[in-house]
Amino acid sequence: MARIVSLGSALQDIYLIDRDDFGSIEFEHRSMFKTLEIGSKFDIDKLDFFVGGGGTNSAVTFAKSGHEVIYLGNLGHDPAGEAILALLDREGIDTSFISYPRAGKTGVSVILLDSKSGERTVLTFRGASSKFDNLKPGDLDLISPDWLYVTTLRGDMGTLLAFFERAKRLHTRIMFNPGVLELANSKQLLGLLEDIDVLLLNKQEASQLVPGNTLSELLTHLRGYAQTIILTDGSMGGIATDGDKTYRFGIYEDVKVKDTTGAGDAFGSGFLAAYASGWSLRQSLVFASANSTSVVQQRGAKNGLISLDTPLHPMPIQLVKS
Q: Which residue in 73, 104, 174, 313 could disulfide with 128, CB within 3.0 to 4.6 Å?
């Protein structure tokens, strides 16, 4: 068991689910909802409330796998914040380092989900999770974690640097899954990666940082930035290396997708949940893929999360020769 800090956002996810009104049409090479006319009213089929946000999604995966987990992020003093706290408490996650920015409201996402196709549109109010410069890297001194797992901090490169530098002084290992706003600061982001032990990107994200058209080319150009690198490409699987061995992998299982919310968080946190438990790179990739596959079969970012004792079946994964 490892002590893991999960640093990132916490949101309440409100699902508006319908089978007919959220159907899509193609317009100028984009898919759009076809019947939501301005000024009209629609009855929806179902309403659900879940807890989301990359920081809490990852924290729950770690807790389900038996790790000691500390969530580090921002909430507001409001019903949404209370719902998030209640879930984290039920999962046995340490919430004593959560901050409450003055006048900050807990972030909320409204997810319009077409139950027929599984397609969705997300409207997000970031609220207290819009900024992270109030968080204290010195808290890591009190926690002494084995791992720091970081999802997007909304492009706050200064706070990221401060946490990474503090973690390295404590010999805490770091896994990082940057977001859109970090990738927009590509030069600064590349400078931060020298402190990273595990870097997770999808193919499109990697192409914003280094040249290359294929996963192999992108991986080659990223090798000097982090010890272990994982690149994913949706239904095409992905590629990963720890500097010693390199694996190409496919999808864990071809399933009907109900909701893709939290799939990336499930993959990244699933990998670290296994890797921090001493599993090999190959075994950790299989568990990550299984965790993500399980999540997309249910609504909500956390409902399908599995644990390390969940039986797994083989998946397409092979060692790449040098």
A: 104
